[in-house]
Amino acid sequence: MASRRHVFISHHHADDKAVTSLTKMLSRKGYEIRNSSIRAKPANRERLKKGLVADSTIKRLLRMKMSWASTAIVVIGKNTANRPWVGLS
């Protein structure tokens, strides 16, 4: 039987493929991952790039998603340190 985990995977959207690979690998190891991280659809990515989403909205969504999860994983890519939401508290 799979071990269910409610996980928030913090990542830059450029690393979405790495997140998918990670969840598949964990699944093969017997974990049922319910990932609550925010994965923006193409239309929303454009809105984010153009600065059309208020910081307060992003912060509210991140807090809500993180509070639901029992585990947090951070995927660190080559541009992670430059992301505005790294270190959000």
From TrEMBL:
Identify the Pfam families for this entry. ThsB_TIR
Where does this protein have coiled-coil stretches?
none
Report the superkingdom from the record.
Bacteria
Read off the InterPro entries from this record.
ThsB__TIR-like_domain, Toll_tir_struct_dom_sf
Please state every residue range assigned to the domain named Thoeris protein ThsB TIR-like: 8-86
The identity of this protein, by name, is MTH538 TIR-like domain
**Organism this protein belongs to:** Sulfitobacter litoralis
